[in-house]
Amino acid sequence: MKPLVLLISALISLIPLPAESQNANPPPPELTALKGTFEKEIMRVQKPIKAQYVAKLTDLLQSAASDDNLDAVISIQNEVNLVKESGPQTAGGKEGPELIKERIKYRSDLKSATDTVADRYKGALENLQSTYTKAAKVNAALAVRHELARLAATAGNPSADTSPASAQPTTAEIDPFNPGASVTVKTSTPFKIHPLKVGEPRLYDSNPLRVIEGVDPALVGLQFTSIPQRQINTFEVTVNRPGVLYAFGAYKDNMTPEQFLGTEAARWQPAEGMIKGKNIWACFKRDVKQGEVIQLKSFELEIAAADIVKK
């Protein structure tokens, strides 16, 4: 072999491999086993809720068929196919209030069931991370930390969304490092923009002052609209960057999801407990696309997003 070739070969051997290749360590077996147990338990608690929802949808489907309501039949059958993860999606359906109401209840039930399991999983992960850290097993501890971060990002609810796929942004449209949406808000309500954190005024003219009392870790860094009390707020929200938009507020007695979230109530998912405070009775979240314009009108309604701009 020529000296130049030998020199080049020697230099190539000294070039470090990418960090990912060097550290392509499999997750520690304890973490793999713990995650497997968690996923099985999630499936176990979700199964009867999904079965009950499909049974309710079947009743709605039969009723819509009896009424000769083709749009309702299409939309309900699409929902059944999504929940059961089988069958195609058919265009042309129109969702009725019964389907929207049952879907919101279904998602709320799913979240309630999975939250308890997720809390136990989080506690087990924290104990495992502590064990690895005390044993100076850095890579293993970091793997557990990564799993904790993933769990927090799902707000303790790993269940899949069942909204029509055409209504959701693709994964590529949402920045995984900043999942909150950026929006411009137009309204006649004199609102203020505050960081979403405990202690910030929610109803800025109330006495005693109503403040944010709890924020899910997944929402750290977001902003929200601080509003005057006892008003019906109307927001026109224009999405500048895709991501997740939150709506929360009083949700007065006997109010329907449509009255709180508008005609696109089916696009929203329950997010109860992610934003807490006195008289916050409802919290919802929604994946939004760039360019969307969303109309919201309700009593003491507020929104939260990564960036909020007044128009």
Helix percent band: 40-55%
Shape: globular
Query: How many distinct folded domains?
Result: 2
How many helices? The count is: 7
Low-confidence stretches: 1-24, 155-178
Q: Order of strands across the biggest sheet?
A: 2-6-13-8-11-9
Proportion of beta-strand residues: 15-25%
How many strands?
Answer: 14
Largest beta-sheet details: 6 strands, antiparallel
Distance between the termini: 71 Å
What's the rounded overall pLDDT mean?
A: 79
Task: From the structure above, extract its key features.
14 strands; alpha+beta; 4-stranded mixed beta sheet; single chain; 311 residues; 7 helices
What this model shows, in words?
The structure is a single chain. This protein has 311 residues and is an alpha+beta fold. It has 2 domains: 29-167, no CATH class; 171-310, no CATH class. 41% of the residues lie in helices and 20% in strands. The protein has helices at residues 3-14, 19-22, 29-66, 70-84, 97-134, 138-153, 257-261, and strands at residues 182-186, 192-195, 201-203, 210-211, 214-215, 223-226, 232-241, 243-249, 269-270, 275-276, 282-288, 293-299, 302-305, 307-310. The protein has a 6-stranded antiparallel β-sheet. The protein has a 4-stranded mixed β-sheet with strand order 12-7-1-14. Helix 3 (29-66) packs antiparallel against helix 5 and helix 5 (97-134) runs antiparallel to helix 6.
